[in-house]
Amino acid sequence: MQPHTIDKQLFTREQIQTRIHTLIDEIAANSDAENLVMIGILRGSFIFLADLVRGFEQHKIHPRIDFISLSSYGAGTESSGSVKIMHDISENLVGADVVVVDDILDSGRTLAFALELFLERGARSVRTCVMLDKQTERAVDLEADHVGFLVEDLFVVGYGLDYDNHYRELPYIAEVTFTER
Ligand code: IMP
Ligand code: MG
Questions:
Q1: Which CATH number fits the domain that encloses residue 57?
Q2: Closest alpha carbon to 161 in 141, 131, 135
Q3: Active-site residue 106, yes or no?
Q4: Could you tell me which residue, 88 or 79, shows the higher pLDDT?
Q5: What is the pTM of this model?
Q6: Beta strand pairing status for 4-11 and 173-178?
């Protein structure tokens, strides 16, 4: 890691929790409760997905839940371009209505890869849900169906998002400011 600080909170715990509730209603209103599969992209989505699904009970939605581990970033803060499956889901997706959950939409490669993969495997529909939508140029033409917040083209951490696998535990989202040595 380069010298940095994480002093600038962009979204507080309260802002995130408030938005989660409206997102849950949004997803529930658009979901066929019968055959819903929520798939989190690891590792960034684990907190977001856990918060989302805990709101489903009040909508009487009982989705299957699975995770896929995809990697496009190395240890740094720049996307490398190609997406690899590091660990696959185990659920059968034939006829399923899938909601793919990720922490952030950046170049769009990760989400586009997941979307195509799950459709190839027979999902009836695949929708996408991200906590953050980075306002940057996409490498692929893709917008998410459900978005928590728009964020500027910064490097951010917290609420599942990491810098070199640190800071995922923060209950808020902060900007990483790179400092001089
Ligand atoms: P994409 O494939 O370029 O859209 O990248 C999405 C993935 O890159 C996300 O799942 C994140 O893991 C990672 N990522 C992109 N931007 C950030 C960031 O600002 N902080 C931490 N991780 C990020
Ligand atoms: Mg990630």
A1: 3.40.50.2020
A2: 131
A3: yes
A4: 88
A5: 0.94
A6: antiparallel
Strand order in the sheet with 173-178: 4-11, 173-178, 156-157
Distances in Å between the alpha carbon of 170 and those of 3, 31, 34, 106, 162? 19, 30, 34, 20, 10
Residue-range definition of the domain harbouring residue 36: 14-152
Give the torsion sign (CA, 147, 148, 149, 155).
negative
| Residues 6+ positions from 60 with CB-CB distance below 8 Å | 33
**Tell me, what's the pLDDT at 78?**
57
Count the domains in the chain. 1
For residue 176, is it within any domain? Answer: no
**Cβ neighbours around 135 below 10 Å, total:** 10
Looking at all shown ligands, the one closest to residue 111's CA atom is 1
Q: Is residue 110 part of a domain?
A: yes
pLDDT of residue 34: 85
Give the environment of ion ligand 2: residues with CB less than 5 A.
Answer: 44
CA separation for the pair 49, 146 (Å, rounded)? 13
User: What pLDDT digit, counting tens, does each position of 167-176 carry?
Assistant: 999 999 999 9
Write the residue with the smallest CA distance to atom 9 of ligand 1: 104
**pLDDT of residue 53 exceeding 90:** yes
CA of 180 to the centre of ligand 2 (A): 27
> How does the average pLDDT of the chain come out, rounded?
94
Please say if the pLDDT value at position 80 is more than 90: no
